[in-house]
From TrEMBL:
Belongs to the QueG family. This is Epoxyqueuosine reductase. Its main location: cytoplasm. The keyword Metal-binding applies. It comes from Dokdonia donghaensis DSW-1. Monomer.
Length: 309
């Protein structure tokens, strides 16, 4: 009992030292409430062409199937809210993609975290996850008391809104567990009312196949004609539901220098984006998450926007 308390305190202090905004811990096991929700969402084809969402259904709901002998899920939040926003006369990029690709930034922090845990506590086995394996990170973060799932289906915290990444360490270590917080969305429907494509089909349910982020990032084919007029000047991702959320009034700028963007990203206007070359794309988005769409994908998105009145 004393060890659990000591280990938990050490892990939370270490998370802070590594620059994470918050750390919450849950007992690893099957996510009973999420199972029927995920099944219904998939059955309604709300994942569109994101076939990977259909894979590893059981593992997605139970981290003990991902990490043998695991006992705890350590959930971590890392702030990415930028110091400066893009030029207002610009095609827009989701704030999470302004700087260095978060997968690499967080993976490095998690490797160090795991190393320190093993060094201090002894033989601890586990795995680090950053949005790259079948784990329901928002559900675990909510279970660990780091926030509640908002009507836009993002994790929300009273202190920090929603502009942060979520990551996990799943470990075979017994720890003290946190409890969920209450929902503070109340009667607010700002995110539902503002969504340009009506992707939030009902409170707490997003049709992924209607989301601007889906059209501009996940969709590999041409953007359908009907969607082009609804893209609201977003060329990569979309932040509308987060931008209008009252809880994001409390967002503070991050302190991770790797998330600072190339200055051109902030100053370019629409005309400059329309004339972007492969060379400039590689310079502005070196080591960025935007590379996921490749130059051809970003160009496709810009062309779709350019044709709109």
């Amino acid at each position: 009992m004393e060890n659990r308390s000591k280990h938990t305190a050490f892990i939370k202090a270490e998370a802070q030292r590594l620059g994470f905004m918050s750390c919450g811990i849950s007992k690893a096991g099957f996510l009973e409430e999420e199972a029927p929700r995920l099944e219904s969402w998939l059955n309604k084809n709300m994942h569109g062409e994101m076939q990977y969402m259909e894979n590893y259904f059981d593992k997605r709901l139970d981290p003990t199937k991902l990490v043998e002998g695991s006992k705890s899920v350590i959930s971590l939040l890392l702030n990415y809210y930028p110091h400066e926003l893009q030029n207002e006369e610009s095609y827009k990029i989701s704030k999470y993609a302004y700087g260095r690709d978060y997968h690499f930034v967080i993976k490095d922090k998690l490797k160090e975290f795991m190393h320190v845990i093993q060094e201090q506590i002894g033989e601890v086995n586990g795995r680090a996850f950053v949005d790259s394996a079948p784990i329901l990170d928002k559900a675990w973060a909510a279970k660990s008391g780091l926030g509640w799932i908002g009507k836009h289906s993002n994790l929300l915290s009273k202190k920090a809104g929603s502009f942060y990444f979520i990551a996990e360490l799943v470990v075979d270590l017994d720890l003290e567990y946190d409890t969920p917080v209450t929902d503070h969305c109340g009667s607010c429907t700002a995110c539902i009312d503002a969504c340009p494509t009506q992707a939030i089909v009902e409170p707490y349910k997003v049709d992924g196949s209607k989301c601007i982020s889906y059209f501009t990032i996940e969709l590999k084919n041409e953007i359908p004609e009907y969607a082009k007029s609804q893209l609201d000047d977003w060329m990569f991702g979309c932040d509308v539901c987060q931008d209008v959320c009252p809880w994001n009034r409390f967002s503070k700028a991050h302190s991770e220098s790797l998330f600072n963007p190339n200055p051109k990203l902030l100053t370019y206007d629409k005309k400059q984006w329309e004339e972007i070359t492969q060379e400039v794309f590689s310079e502005i988005f070196r080591k960025s998450a935007v590379k996921r769409t490749k130059f051809s994908g970003l160009k496709r998105n810009i062309d779709a926007l350019k044709k709109q009145p």
